């Protein structure tokens, strides 16, 4: 346990800062272990904080103060104080200039917050509170200043010196050094500050904005990565165009830069004019990146670009408003990807991820509202709830208002608050104002944690021609909130006639709603009576996942098979297939636990046969329909998770389907093989994913022909999507005779490429065979592995603990022990990553008693260490209910 327990910060305690910065001048003299940062801050008393005399209190951590002066006058020792988190100057004028000079140590910075070194290159990460590790400053987003930054570095080793804005001056200095001065005219909070210096090469392109301005686009990478930049650059241009056409938002500087770095805690960061990216989130090449990576890169490049308006021009007042920028920006990037690729598949992928991972977060000990009301460590709040649930709320707003009014609301928001730091309430108020809607109850979505559950029942009265639908909502209590209020839940639905197979016209209280409509659940329980319903319907509820809730309806398997065939909503067609498979899986899980023979539900087999033999244009959707619910999603449905039974049941279904439909899968595989040169475009991606889903079924029975197909695909595959699928299927099969030499060859071929080696690690540690844990330990000693590189930690430890459920949850607790050992090490090196990687252990409540005890013992073992505030907060929450 920490010496003094970190204390929470409360939303209710918000006050504007006593002093604000109007202009910031920085000078960096870059030296690996001793960088000098000279800062000149132009400060003034905040107009809303005029009460009496107030000291100047600035944030600052791990800084060595060398000099301090106010209005040119050096301060005496008794005029200020410095401790491990703050600098206090007791008396200051109402307007003044503060000069400080500090020394920082980028080389020793393994937390990757503030200024650090990655592969010999200097870079920064300031969100949320990293700037305080660079210089003394009011490190809070409601302090917005213009910045002028001079970067000085060795001309030989650091030929490129970058910061935010536009370069205004550069030149040579004595001792082989040079400098560049950058000006950023847009006032910004310090979390958007960035600096990069290194031996980098650039790829350059141009974009003409809608008002005719020319913007220079630059992608900066290490020389060996120059061939991996095309896709990110093309994605950036598409995103810029899309934001102009869709939201009327134009870029506002003369240049936009992206830099790729190897050591990065997150995917990327939207620093003004100088986005810094994890190399995994920007570099692609057909030989090294899969289709999924190409799509992820496109989405992240767009996301960071979109932040230029939703986040940078209009920013957050405080970190409780984080979802203001993240929820809105995720929604924007989701819509961009949907427009650029397959919209239904994008929705299916997003929802299936959301229902698995966010629902689990909402049901676990770290559950929190989209607008939290307190936190200990803001670094722990970059969560699925803030990002993805926040995006679902914005999506509901878009649907409630309709696109046109939503766009008006967005225009009003950007115009009214340009250059300001605002709140979630300000955003929603704009939406209420333009639409005239009362969004009072709707706001509860932001304040209330937990996943609402809807229990629906329906009854058809043939004599009256009426369909009565009753919806009951309930949100289960979460650790910090025991009482929950009813939410305003938009339920998009249709009634599908069992005779006609068509959507029926719906009339509700005399009002005709058409065949696809939204009904509004606001009370705990509501009854909806649809009249003039001429045939018995099956309801299709929550179409397109119109609200982030769990919806239960007592569907029979025939109903689901019917909807799978007839629902006009593509999303719900897919979801009916998932529900049908889940019902069959439930039986098989029970059979496994009871030691009874497993029998395959023929309705599932027939539904799959139908899918495989019906012609479709949408191969991407078909591939999704043929994909069984993941083990993690199945686990979400179980009261007590039995990882072995889930794995056995799912494997059984795959094998049973492959046995019954072997010829059909083989035909699909062959029909979708192609020698066309790789292009990451939707049609090809769909074809590859369908082919690879078919191969995964064929490999479930591992007959010689299937193994041969996989081997050939591995050997001939001219793109990483095919090669990786084949290698994964072989590695996860019993055919070590083929997999082991393939893994060896692959590892040798790609030893020089860290991003491919990440995949090589993940493939091996996710294999279900019982030696997986030993492989993790073995691979942790591999020269390509490093605990200080977050990508490696995620690829090896994260993939094992998060995706290899049977082995992580080994009954002997060795999986838990391994993860706890890593967390204890990472707690000292990189607290943010440590607090993230621990997640699977925090979900102990979901397992049987013996596993619970083993998991809790590991959490206790971590608790006994001297903890960072990040790990401390997560551990305390995880053990609070123990
Ligand atoms: N805003 C960044 C998150 C950085 C947080 C690091 N602690 C990435 C993004 O959402 O775009
Ligand atoms: Zn973001």
From TrEMBL:
Q: Which reactions does this protein catalyse?
A: Release of an N-terminal amino acid, Xaa-|-Yaa- from a peptide, amide or arylamide. Xaa is preferably Ala, but may be most amino acids including Pro (slow action). When a terminal hydrophobic residue is followed by a prolyl residue, the two may be released as an intact Xaa-Pro dipeptide
Q: Gene3D superfamilies under this entry?
A: 2.60.40.1840, 3.30.2010.30, Neutral Protease Domain 2, Peptidase M1, alanyl aminopeptidase, C-terminal domain, tricorn interacting facor f3 domain
- What domain of life is recorded for the organism? Bacteria
Domain (Peptidase M1 alanyl aminopeptidase Ig-like fold): give its ranges.
450-552
Write one Gene Ontology MF term.
Answer: alanyl aminopeptidase activity
Annotated EC: 3.4.11.2
Q: Which UniProt keywords apply?
A: Aminopeptidase, Hydrolase, Metal-binding, Metalloprotease, Protease, Zinc
Q: Does the keyword Hydrolase apply?
A: yes
Q: Enumerate the CDD domains for this protein.
A: M1_APN
Described by its record, this protein's role is as follows: Aminopeptidase N is involved in the degradation of intracellular peptides generated by protein breakdown during normal growth as well as in response to nutrient starvation.
Query: What name does UniProt use for this protein?
Result: Aminopeptidase N
State the organism's lineage: Bacteria, Pseudomonadati, Pseudomonadota, Gammaproteobacteria, Oceanospirillales
């Amino acid at each position: 346990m920490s010496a003094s327990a970190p204390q929470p910060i409360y939303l209710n305690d918000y006050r504007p800062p006593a002093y604000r910065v109007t202009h910031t001048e920085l000078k960096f003299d870059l030296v690996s272990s001793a960088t000098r940062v000279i800062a000149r801050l132009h400060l003034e008393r905040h107009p809303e904080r005029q009460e009496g005399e107030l000291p100047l209190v600035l944030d600052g951590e791990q800084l060595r103060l060398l000099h301090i002066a106010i209005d040119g006058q050096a301060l005496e020792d008794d005029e200020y104080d410095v401790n491990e988190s703050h600098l206090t100057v007791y008396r200051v004028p109402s307007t003044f200039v503060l000069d400080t000079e500090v020394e920082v140590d980028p080389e020793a910075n393994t937390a990757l917050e503030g200024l650090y070194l990655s592969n010999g290159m200097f870079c920064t990460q300031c969100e949320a509170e990293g700037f305080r590790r660079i210089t003394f400053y009011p490190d809070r987003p409601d302090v917005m200043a213009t910045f002028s930054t001079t970067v000085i570095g060795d001309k030989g080793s650091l030929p490129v010196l970058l910061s935010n804005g536009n370069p205004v001056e550069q030149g040579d200095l004595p001792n082989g050094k040079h400098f560049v001065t950058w000006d950023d005219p847009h006032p910004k909070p310090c979390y958007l500050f960035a600096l990069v210096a290194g031996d980098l090469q650039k790829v350059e392109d141009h974009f003409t904005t809608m008002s005719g301005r020319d913007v220079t686009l630059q992608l900066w990478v290490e020389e060996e990565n120059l061939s991996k930049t095309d896709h990110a650059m093309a994605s950036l241009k598409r995103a810029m165009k899309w934001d102009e056409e869709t939201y009327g938002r134009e870029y506002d500087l003369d240049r936009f830069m992206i830099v790729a770095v190897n050591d990065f805690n997150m995917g990327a960061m939207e620093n003004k004019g100088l986005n810094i990216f994890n190399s995994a989130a920007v570099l692609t090449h057909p030989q090294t990146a899969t289709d999924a990576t190409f799509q992820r890169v496109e989405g992240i490049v767009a996301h960071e670009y979109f932040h230029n308006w939703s986040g940078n021009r209009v920013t957050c007042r405080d970190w409780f408003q984080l979802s203001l920028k993240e929820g809105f920006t995720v929604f924007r990037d989701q819509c961009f990807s949907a427009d650029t690729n397959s919209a239904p598949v994008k929705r299916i992928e997003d929802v299936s991820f959301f229902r698995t991972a966010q629902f689990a977060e909402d049901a676990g000990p770290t559950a929190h509202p989209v607008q939290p009301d307190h936190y200990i460590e803001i670094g722990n709040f970059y969560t699925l709830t803030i990002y993805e649930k926040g995006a679902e709320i914005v999506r509901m707003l878009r649907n409630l208002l309709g696109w046109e009014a939503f766009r008006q609301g967005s225009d009003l928001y950007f115009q009214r608050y340009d250059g300001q730091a605002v709140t979630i309430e300000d955003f929603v108020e704009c939406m209420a104002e333009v639409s005239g809607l009362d969004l009072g109850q709707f706001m509860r979505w932001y304040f209330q944690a937990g996943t609402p559950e809807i229990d629906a029942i329906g009854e058809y009265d043939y004599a009256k021609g009426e369909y009565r639908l009753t919806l009951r909502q309930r949100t289960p209590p979460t650790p910090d909130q025991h009482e929950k209020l009813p939410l305003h839940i938009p339920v998009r639905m249709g009634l599908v006639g069992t005779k006609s197979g068509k959507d029926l016209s719906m009339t509700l209280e005399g009002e005709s709603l058409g065949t696809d409509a939204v009904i509004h659940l606001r009370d705990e329980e509501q009854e909806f009576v649809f009249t003039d319903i001429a045939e018995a319907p099956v309801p299709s509820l929550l179409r397109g996942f119109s609200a982030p809730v769990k919806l239960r309806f007592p569907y029979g398997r025939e109903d689901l098979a019917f909807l799978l065939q007839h629902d006009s909503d593509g999303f719900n067609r897919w979801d009916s297939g998932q529900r049908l498979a889940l019902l069959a899986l439930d039986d098989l899980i029970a059979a496994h636990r009871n030691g009874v023979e497993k029998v395959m539900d023929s309705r599932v087999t027939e539904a799959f046969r139908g899918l495989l033999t019906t012609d479709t244009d949408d191969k991407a959707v078909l591939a999704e329909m043929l994909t069984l619910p993941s083990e993690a999603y199945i686990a979400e449905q179980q009261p007590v998770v039995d990882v072995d039974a889930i794995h056995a049941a799912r494997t059984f279904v795959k094998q049973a389907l492959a046995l019954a439909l072997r010829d059909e899968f083989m035909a699909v595989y062959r029909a979708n093989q192609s020698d066309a040169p790789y292009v990451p475009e939707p049609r090809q991606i769909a074809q590859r994913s369908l082919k690879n889903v078919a191969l995964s079924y064929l490999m479930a029975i591992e007959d010689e022909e299937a193994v041969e197909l996989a081997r050939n695909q591995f050997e001939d595959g001219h793109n990483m999507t095919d090669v990786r699928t084949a290698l994964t299927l072989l590695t996860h099969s019993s055919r070590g005779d083929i997999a082991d030499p393939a893994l060896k060859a692959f590892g040798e071929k790609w030893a020089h490429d860290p991003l491919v080696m990440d995949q090589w690690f993940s493939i091996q540690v996710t294999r279900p065979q019982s030696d997986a844990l030993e492989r993790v330990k073995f691979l942790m000693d591999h020269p390509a592995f490093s605990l200080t590189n977050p990508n490696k930690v995620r690829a090896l430890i994260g993939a094992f603990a998060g995706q290899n459920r049977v082995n992580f949850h080994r009954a002997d607790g060795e999986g838990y022990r391994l993860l706890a050992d890593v967390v204890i090490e990472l707690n000292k090196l990189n607290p943010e990553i440590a607090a993230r990687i621990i997640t699977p252990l925090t979900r102990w409540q979901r397992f049987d008693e013996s596993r619970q005890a083993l998991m809790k013992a590991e959490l206790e073992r971590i608790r006994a260490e001297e903890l960072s505030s990040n790990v401390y907060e997560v551990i305390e929450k995880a053990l609070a209910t123990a």
